[in-house]
Design brief:
single chain; about 325 residues; mainly alpha; hpI Integrase, Chain A; three-stranded antiparallel beta sheet
């Protein structure tokens, strides 16, 4: 965080705290944004003393319009961490208590195979009512197939560079991912063809530098990097066209749920092929970039317990872009 970003009395401490976190290997991007908000909040409240008190912390924790429970939890958590850091520096301060948040009760939305196919058909039919060079329309057919065919995160997809896509070798290179690791992700032949077709259309844009190695793979109509907000707005339109109700309130369906769906459908496909789910568990965990097997275990439970009908009645319907999970080798 630059000195220009913060102006409250806490400015140097916030900068030092973020520097410490990043020196320990944390990205701390979302936390930095929240701390910037907190700095502005302190300015607006006229708080000028070094150290926090319960009154100011309680005001910070108050729910703003349409703020989700998770957002409140996150903004209190980061200030709690800052307060603990200040105490370690010998500064007397109040440390706020974390609000109750039932994080483990969240159940992701798992799209059916039929819904996935409807989503693909819908994104292929998208049109623009007016010209907008910042639109992400061009990427939607490729992006949604890429998310479902590889299970990568939306942030990972939008961060892909041209040099990260190896169509002939049928793999992606993901760098500096959520858990701070690089990894290779395989693609099916049909997904590689989707990426190839997308590049042919993309490269017809009258924009210079589209093919440069460090340029973005997924681009807007003016050749720039795609923004999350634009992609999410188009996805809402896709859901509407596909006849999939959007309920909101963190219940989705969300674009990130395509990643959850990839994992469950992969387990489903393996089960249908007679592969023991717990034998394939470590391989899928590595493929998804999870830090621990426990992170992947939820998908086994979702597939075999919460969605038993997926195991019993698939009607032989699998979308072709799903990659083959590598078999166990000695």
């Amino acid at each position: 965080m630059s000195s220009k970003s913060c102006w409250s009395v806490f400015s140097p401490h916030i900068s030092d705290f973020i520097g410490l976190k990043r020196s320990l290997g944390y990205k701390y991007k979302e936390e930095e944004r929240l701390l910037y908000r907190f700095d502005q909040f302190l300015l607006n409240q006229g708080h000028t003393s070094i150290g926090l008190n319960k009154v100011i912390c309680d005001k910070w924790a108050n729910r703003l319009h349409n703020e989700a429970e998770l957002t409140i939890y996150s903004k209190v958590k980061v200030v709690k961490q800052l307060a603990e850091y200040l105490r370690e520096q010998g500064i007397k301060t109040y440390v706020p208590q974390l609000p109750k948040y039932s994080a483990n009760t969240f159940i992701p939305y798992i799209y059916s195979h039929e819904e996935i196919n409807k989503i693909f058909r819908a994104c292929d039919s998208l049109t623009m009512k007016c010209r907008n060079v910042y639109s992400s329309l061009l990427i939607m057919p490729c992006l949604l197939r890429l998310l479902y065919g590889t299970g990568i995160r939306i942030s990972e997809a939008l961060s892909l560079k041209n040099k990260d896509i190896n169509i002939s070798g049928r793999y992606l290179t993901l760098k500096d991912t959520k858990n701070g690791k690089d990894r290779l992700v395989s693609m099916s032949g049909s997904l590689a063809e989707v990426c190839k077709d997308y590049l042919e259309y993309r490269n017809k844009l009258l924009v210079s530098g589209l093919k440069r190695e460090n340029g973005p793979f997924l681009v807007t109509l003016n050749g720039g990097a795609c923004k999350h907000g634009s992609v999410h707005r188009w996805f809402r339109k896709v859901l509407e066209m596909a006849g999939i109700p959007f309920t909101g309130n963190r219940k989705g369906p969300r674009i990130h749920d395509i990643r959850h769906t990839f994992a469950c459908h992969s387990f489903l496909k393996l089960s249908d092929e007679g592969v023991d789910l717990y034998c394939s568990w470590p391989y899928l965990s590595t493929y998804l970039g999870h830090q621990s097997l426990e992170s992947t275990e939820q998908y086994i439970r979702l597939t075999s317990q919460m969605y038993p009908e997926l195991l019993k009645d698939t009607d032989g319907l699998y979308v072709d872009v799903l990659p083959a999970i590598p078999a166990k080798t000695t």
